[in-house]
Amino acid sequence: MWLVIAACLAVFQGTIGDPSCASCKNWKDGVLNVHIVPHSHDDVGWLKTVDQYYYGSRQGIQNAGVQYILDTVVSQLLHDPAKRFVQVETAFFWQWWQEQNDHMRHQVKQLVSNGQLELLGGGWVMNDEAVTHYQATVDQFTWGFRRLNDTFGSCGAPRAGWQIDPFGHSRETASLMATMGFDGLFFGRLDYADKTQRLKNKTAEMVWQGSPQNLGKPAELFTHVLFNHYSPPPGFCFDLLCGDEPFIDSKHSPDYNVDRRVKEFVDYAKKQSAHYTTNNIIMTMGQDFNYQDANAWYKNLDKLIKYVNAKNPDLNLFYSTPTCYLQAVNSANVTWTTKDDDFFPYPSDQHSYWTGYFTSRPTLKFFAAQGNNFLQVCKQLYALTELGPEDWADLTAMREAVAMMQHHDAITGTEQQHVAQDYALRLSRGFDECHFATEAAVTKLLTINSTQPTLDFESCTQLNISQCATTESSDRFVVLVFNPLSRSVSHHVRIPVASSSYKVSDAVGVEVKAQMVPLPEPMLRLPGRVSPAKQELVFMAEKLPPLGYTTFYVQKLAGKSMLAYAEKGPERLTLKNKFMEVSVNEITGELSEIVVDGAQQTIDQSFYYYEGAVGDNEEAKNRSSGAYIFRPAGDATKVAKQAKTISYKGPIVQELQQTFSPWVSQVVRLYEDDPHHLELEWLVGPIPIEDGKGKEVVSRLAIDWRTDGIFYTDSNGREMMTRKRRENLTEPIAGNYYPVTTAALLASGEQMLAVFPDRAQGASSLRDGELELMVHRRLLKDDAFGVSEALNETAFGEGLVARGRHIVKLGSKSLKAEQRRLAQQHNVLRPWLLFAPTDLTAKQFAKTYKTSWSGLSAALPPNVNLLTLEPWKGRSLLLRLEHLQNRDDDEVLSKPVTVSLKSLFSGFDVTAARETSLGANRWLSDVKRMEWEIDSNDIGLDSNTLAGGLDDDFNVTLTPMQIRTFIIDVTAKKV
Ligand SMILES: *[C@@H]1O[C@H](CO)[C@@H](O)[C@H](O)[C@H]1NC(C)=O
Ligand SMILES: *[C@@H]1O[C@H](CO)[C@@H](O)[C@H](O)[C@H]1NC(C)=O
Ligand SMILES: *[C@@H]1O[C@H](CO)[C@@H](O)[C@H](O)[C@H]1NC(C)=O
Ligand SMILES: [Zn+2]
């Protein structure tokens, strides 16, 4: 085995600058080089589940079996060293690899090191780019890369992005891929009009500036828009699934077609080449789940190459790969145009804007977000407590389940119903495994001596519907609040309980202020909710330790009810704390006014719905709204003119519960200690369809500001994108929708309004001062882009009900500087709660266990976050630090910041640290990316940030928005 790797390294080192282990020098000067790239697009779940696709079961739904693809492709490659193939989705590859014997594995390693089998993309899945969070994307690549590196060594490191199917492309993806060390990115889907124009003016290849304001050159990525999506030229799909005409080359056959077929191909190649700059073009020879019988493809490709080359000395066809193509194009020394925004939204024709999937399946999207949150907690606790390798498998289940959720037909909601259920099942198993690991970790941390009773912790995953077995049924229980952030935060804990009087004590046994709030009536009749809890106990977990926990002790009291009475009188219409005052209109019951620091703002919030367009999908103008497409039949209708309201006030939180209709309600919540922070918890569904119409529900905020058509949305939770409302679109509403993963903002002068959703949603500002987020959708007609089902989700025999949270902040410009931290604290990396019943008293409990603990020796500065901490190989750990601020955000926080790794952690010292590229699969010192000339001035920011060094104390300096990745060795601190 080491011989193979050594050979591969030799090739690699012998050709510095050559970005792959393979020798690619097949292109020639003075001719048109046609790079024939055999590939198969293998969705990790869509119409069938992952396993159905892998094994090839349920062929009646779709004829697709990935195991056959890999079997037959590998056998073809072994027979002919000229042939090549690109393998993309590591989830499938890994499943196949584990089934191979040593002989086969040895052969496949050779195919990888000689470049015949090129690993491309290489993430666990081909992730969506609109509704994913960058943390989950980085993780899913890291996990795929890790399997590849462990298997193939450095030749297994993918060198290019292959995002051929995702429905639009985010700038953040370009930034991440550049810092993973990729040399280029290929994709297929972009605005049809943009594509036409780019082909016309030869800008279908460009240098995409992934972080023009912050990272500069290290985030630039050469980007190629594929000519014919990811398909072969029409008529040249030789797969058994396609049925195109094969080469019939017997001269005696009456069907002999070589001359005609060659001419058709050459005409097409020349037409294509007229749209690209160099004398190279790439031909994607594959389709969805092609190559189950690879021989059919390769046999005809062999003939294509042979006959075209024989008859056309000005053409050079050869088996190639995307990275070989990049090398060829790079060597042409062209100066490229640049792009510094993104490829959203994606309309595939005048009426088909792919902006519905930003919201489709809102509860699956929330589950995915929670999955990332818990995975981080689980990995951190695992690493901090050095759980033994025997628990290794537990972590992997969750890593793989969360990674799989990022697939472009998973988190997007564009899969069939039974597949959505399969993803949810896998994720739920991941939760179980992670819960097991988390419980083991906190038990270890809580333990002072081994004779104390162990606590049986529950991680209540149904807190979002105010349901939790332990808290509902125990008279005394412990709440452990774990903070995954590397800074201290405070958090309001809400616990569903069945009685009406409780006492809460903190980690040292001192009573803390607590309050009870009745659950809104619509919650009590929520389909599927089985809980005796009619109220929630609320208290503040103050100053949680960074990367650590504290515990609270909750005891049921016999005394009189703590439940607040509903407010009467005019106070019932106003919520107020020391920072702000929020009022609802007496007649409509809608939010009407906010007073912040004495300044009054008229602000209105209500729910509306669009009726989904219905058509036969035969022509663009007859497109239906569906899982992918948002196409409203007209303007939005208000759900109700009036909301019934009821309000409760207490020392910790004031709540105003609004009921708009039997299927839309909301809680407006103002916590005592949260500055300028309003929580809107919406409950929507079952969306009625008795009138035969599908509906798409939005929450719309309107403030009396002039915003000049400008609003801001996050790109995968990281940098913000400026959006400008476009007029004169064929779809003026859907065409102005953008994805929001963590934040949407409006600005006017020195003021800002921000909304932080707890899951990804579509959003727009259709009129000045307005911000709307689509929270739920239920449709009765398919949009004919393949999923073949209407997006009509049901649960418990009714239309699906979704509950979620919008945190609304009104503030100054500094909100822009704070937004990422706020999104992390409230949504992305929310404190994780664990519950356990106990027989001890509060005092006994505080004495018996280690009730408070931090994994860090000190909090990190406010502009730095520990993005990743997880067990890696052997006893090493994987560590990522990120700078949270933009360059122009803030005078202080936007400065570069230095963190010393050496004694960062409370339990161990860092004894060695080696920096890698973002995906943790290449030592940073080995990464040499291709250089591309660009036509505009380079932004000139730290063009060398990627090569940052590390001193003896492991001091790490981060520049604005930079992420740095390290593999560290640690040794336990001497006590
Ligand atoms: C990748 O794999 C090779 C071979 O196993 C190993 O030597 C190298 O350290 C790995 N790279 C990283 C960044 O882990
Ligand atoms: C080419 O078309 C694109 C897309 O419309 C446009 O952004 C760009 O400015 C054009 N470039 C040139 C050089 O005409
Ligand atoms: C591109 O530039 C390199 C380095 O300057 C040079 O060696 C090479 O010949 C050039 N290639 C072409 C096609 O001009
Ligand atoms: Zn796909």
TrEMBL record:
Domain of life: Eukaryota
MF terms in GO: alpha-mannosidase activity; carbohydrate binding; metal ion binding
CC terms in the record's Gene Ontology section: lysosome
GO biological process terms held by the UniProt record: mannose metabolic process
Known catalytic reactions: Hydrolysis of terminal, non-reducing alpha-D-mannose residues in alpha-D-mannosides
Range of residues in the leader sequence: 1-17
Keywords: Disulfide bond, Glycoprotein, Glycosidase, Hydrolase, Metal-binding, Signal, Zinc
EC numbers for this chain: 3.2.1.-
Enzyme class: hydrolase
Cofactor(s) needed by this chain: Zn(2+)
Stretches assigned to the Glycoside hydrolase family 38 central domain: 352-427
Record-given protein name: Alpha-mannosidase
Stated family: Belongs to the glycosyl hydrolase 38 family.
Xref: InterPro entries: Gal_mutarotase_sf_dom, GH38_C, Glyco_hydro/deAcase_b/a-brl, Glyco_hydro_38_C, Glyco_hydro_38_cen, Glyco_hydro_38_cen_sf, Glyco_hydro_38_N, Glyco_hydro_38_N_sf
UniProt source species: Cloeon dipterum
Cofactor remark from the record: Binds 1 zinc ion per subunit.
Name of a matching Pfam family: Glyco_hydro_38C
